[in-house]
Known about the structure:
17% strand; alpha/beta; 5-stranded mixed β-sheet; Conserved hypothetical protein from pyrococcus furiosus pfu- 392566-001, ParB domain
Amino acid sequence: MQKINFVRLSEITKWPRNPKDHDLPSIEASIRRFGFVDPLVRDEKTGRLVAGHGRAEALERLKKAGNDRPSRVEVAPDGEWLVPVLGGVSFENETDAEAYLIASNRLVETGGYDDVLLRAILADLRDADALGGTGFSEKEVDALLKAAAKDAPTLAEGFSDEADATMDALDGEDDDVRTLILTVEADEYQSFVSRLQAVMRSCKGASWTDAVKALLDRWEAESDG
């Protein structure tokens, strides 16, 4: 039966052959911000890790540097860090265990991203000054948005991109007709389009008009909150 055990950090044994490199500074930043969220995974037959080598090494570096223990890591009476490890996982043989080690890393890579949704979320996080610990820097996000700008769709008639992000609803002679004028700063254009595309996708093919309304309703609700 699988269960979480708290294991002394110094007693965690890594798999001897692990080809995966790790961005340890980014992992450390993530652990400092979010705590230790994902437990390590150990093969019960060998007693060695099959997943979580980067997180284990990041914890070792944090402890050695004198950092406070992250949340969800406990401390033994002698000061040793106790790390959550998923137990009860036992592979048929070392070949299967090593194959899982490869799969646990590779399958994350092969999935890729929904690029439109990724850009929209990253733009939101950047604007909220909340990119820390995500593995993305503000410079990288700006580069992603700029690279995507050349592929951005042309704004529909009535849109421009040279002023502040504002909206004006102008009354027409017909009470049932309103003209929407939306202006967006040029350097924020791709960020806005990415958000808009994400709304359209989540609304399963909504029109530009409906997507703009949904996006503005969301901004208004966030402002009111």
